[in-house]
Amino acid sequence: MWTLRCTRWILPLLLPASLLAQDHTFPTRTIERQIVPVERYFDGAVEAVHRATVSAQIAGRIDEVLFDVDDFVEAGDVLVRFRSPEQQAAVDSAEAALREAEARAKEASAEYQRIKEVFSRDLVSQSAMDRAEAELQSARARVNAARSALTQASEGLEYTTVRAPYSGIVTERHVEEGETATVGQPLMSGLSLDRLRVTARVPQAYVEAVREAQRARVYLPAEQTPIISETIVVFPYADSESHTFPVRVELPQDLSGLYPGMFLKVGFILRQEAQLQVPEQAVVLRSELTGVYVVESDGSVYFRQLRLGERIDGQVRVLAGLSEGETIALDPVAAGIALKSSRLKEH
Q1: Mind listing the domains of the chain with CATH numbers?
Q2: Is the dihedral of CA 171, 172, 178, 179 positive or negative?
Q3: What is the rounded radius of gyration, in angstroms, for the C-alpha atoms of the chain?
Q4: In sequence order, what are the beta bridge partners of 162?
Q5: Kind and range of the H or E element at 106?
Q6: Pairing verdict, β 51-55 and 186-191
Q7: For residue 263, what is the enclosing H or E element?
Q8: Which of 275, 273, 276 is nearest to 328 (CA)?
Q9: Residue 61: what are its φ and ψ, rounded to 5°?
Q10: In whole angstroms, what is the distance from residue 79 CA to residue 140 CA?
């Protein structure tokens, strides 16, 4: 079930602080309604942008598995090694064939230069010149073929060493040492924590507003200030059962304390609305009562209980208990002292 309550993105709502009547010195503020964006919360799941499962590209027996689940690997680290005598032999053979082809090409080039010089003096026939040129071209072609064979053999040898495509954490190990793997068999899975994103599912009634706003707030655990993201991807299809649209929200790099699979709250702007808010610093908690110190026009101070909503960016939404145009104390400690002093004077 999606949370049905709405929250608001906070904008500066209140007028500049003014001083009380001359017998008080603590600052106050007069509350006014302001037009602010209305935000709605949805649950989102953290995902890794980079996650992969490396698979075997050759068939063979596994010689070493160098990492296990929860191990951190750097990009390029060797994850798995296969036994490679056949692949090494193929590389050695290809290198020898290349050396032979290069030697033959060198010999053919020297012969061609000799024939060309003699041909320029009309001492050999045209057919002898043509044969020398053909031999040179054939020798060069054999060199290219030998190099291609060496590249192929080296690639096969490289396949016996499986490396990490990027830095990250191993999430699953699919094989053990001594197993015989087949081509395409999964070897190890992992993900990177450097780049994360959150995917939320938005009901179709709100998806157009989310698409137009292209802005979201992601609320991290134990963090007072949410992360603002302006990189949002709204999927062009809805789930056939829930009729919700997946919405992907990108997060900044190198966030600590977040892991794929965690749930977070994601806020999307839906509309604009006028509302009252008070600074969080002015809110007082008394036993089970929450409120603010209200200052009357004659300078008198008294505590008033409020029903409050969301707390964002140092502001708290007022649901009930305060009206537009009323003045509150920004320093509740000083206001409380003033209230006690006035009571003492009365007695």
Answers
A1: 1-33+276-347 (2.40.420.20), 36-49+195-273 (2.40.30.170), 52-80+162-193 (2.40.50.100), 84-159 (1.10.287)
A2: negative
A3: 37
A4: 80
A5: helix 85-119
A6: antiparallel
A7: strand 263-275
A8: 276
A9: -90, 135
A10: 39
Q: Specify the higher pLDDT residue, 318 or 195.
A: 195
Which secondary-structure segment (H or E) carries 153?
helix 126-158
Q: Phi, psi (5° rounding) for residue 19? A: -85, 155
Closest CA to 17 of 340, 339, 331, 332: 331
C-alpha 57: how far from chain center: 29
State whether residue 322 is helix, strand or coil.
coil
Taking the whole predicted model, whether its pTM rises above 0.70 is answered as no
Nearest to 166, CA basis, from 195, 196, 191:
191
Q: Provide the pLDDT confidence category of residue 346 given band limits of 50, 70 and 90.
A: low
Residues facing 72 on adjacent strands: 169
Angle at 118 between CA 112 and CA 124, to 5 degrees: 95
Structural tokens at position 120: 């320029």
pLDDT tens digits for range 239-279: 888 889 999 999 888 777 888 888 988 988 777 777 787 78
Angle at 286 between CA 285 and CA 291, to 5 degrees: 55
End-to-end CA distance of the chain: 56
Residue 20 has pLDDT above 60, yes or no: no
Q: What secondary structure letter does DSSP report for 179? A: P
Quick one: tokens of 286? 């008394």
| Phi, psi dihedrals of residue 237, rounded to the nearest 5° | -150, 160
| Helical packing angle, 126-158 and 85-119, nearest 10° | 160
Mean pLDDT of 154-162: 90
Which percentage of the chain shows pLDDT scores above 90?
Answer: 33
Query: Could you tell me which of 179, 137, 153, 162 has the C-alpha nearest to residue 56?
Result: 162
Give yes or no for a contact between 266 and 219, defined as CB atoms under 8 angstroms apart. yes
